[in-house]
Structure formats: C-alpha cells, structure tokens
Amino acid sequence: SITKERTEVILQGTSSLDPSDPSAVWEEYDFKCKPGDLKRRPCLITPYHYRLDWLMWFAAFQTYEQNEWIIHLAGKLLAQEEEALSLMATNPFAGRAPP
C-alpha cells in the first residue's frame, strides 16, 4: 500500500553565524530524484532508482537514531566532500564558504 501523505526529510544549511537567528537564511540541498521543487520536472529513470533518494523516503518514517547514516551524510555535506555532493542535484554553497 502507499501512504496518502508523504513525509520528507529535507537537508538544509545556512551561512549565518547564528543558525538560531530568525533572519538566518536556510538553503536546501536538492536531491537528484527525490520530490522537492514543484516546478522541477519529475525524473524518469525506470526501472532503476537513485538509492539515496529512495532511502530518504524510508528515513522519513523513522528517527535519525534508526538511520545514523543521515548524520554522517550531513557531516560530509557540511565539510563539502565531493563524493557526498556528487549524490546531490545541487549544492547551494558551491563556490562559497561551507555552511
């Protein structure tokens, strides 16, 4: 069965020195095939799928303690590791200081 609502995990970063500041601008990392921007054309890669995007769907049903790999992925994105960034559709901090 398929759920009627889809909960999504969204990864964001900010260049703000104080992330809790209400004026901090948070920028989203886009995935290659995971639903996100409604103006983006849906990807079509049948019969395959992007494994990270697929795992993110299941991670939304659980806690981060049950999906410790998300913490490691976030750390790699914060460090702007090319291997991790290659799994993403966009890097909002490309050419800038890391978040």
UniProtKB/TrEMBL annotation:
Pfam families referenced in this protein's UniProt entry, alphabetically: LMF1_C
Domain annotation Lipase maturation factor 1/2 C-terminal: ranges: 2-99
Domain of life: Eukaryota
GO biological process, one term: protein maturation
GO cellular component: a single term: endoplasmic reticulum membrane
Name of the protein this chain belongs to: LMF1 factor
Record organism: Aegotheles bennettii
